[in-house]
Amino acid sequence: MSEIQQLYDKGHYRATLDSIMALRKDYPEAVKARKAALKIWQNASLHMAQSDVATTDSTLQATLATLQTTQDLRTKNLLRVRCDSLKARYEAMCGVVRMIHYRQQHP
Fold first, then answer.
1. Which domain of life does the UniProt lineage start with (predicted)?
2. 3 state SS of 107
3. Is 44 exposed, middle or buried (CB count within 10 Å of its CB: 0-12, 13-18, 19+)?
């Protein structure tokens, strides 16, 4: 558990999740450790999802700005498709964040 906590504290969220999965697999009966790991799992997942939301939003804003200045019709259409895809991803990741918040409040 200390290794998992250290990984989380350092911001290595993917490695944290991988370590928790290994803990679950290797020690299925370690209930206390798994309960503690669940909170870390939720927090690490939340940080990763929030980071993904921020990155997606930045990319979407840049794509929208490029769309406004582009004159070529083909390029505009491709940018519109990209915007639609980014908007869908943004909404999905916001849903993930909402679900994690809900699960943290209602264990």
1. Bacteria
2. coil
3. buried
Q: What is the mean pLDDT of the chain?
A: 95
The Cα–Cα gap between 97 and 52 comes to 10
Residues in the chain: 107
Count up the domains in the chain and report the number: 1
> How far apart (Å, rounded) are the C-alpha atoms in residues 74 and 80?
10
Question: Could you give the CA distance from residue 80 to residue 87 in angstroms, rounded to a whole number?
Answer: 10
Which H helix or E strand runs over 54?
A: helix 31-69
- Residue span of the structural domain in which 88 resides: 1-105
8 A C-beta contact, residue 28 and residue 37: no
On the question of pLDDT at 107 being above 80, the answer is: no
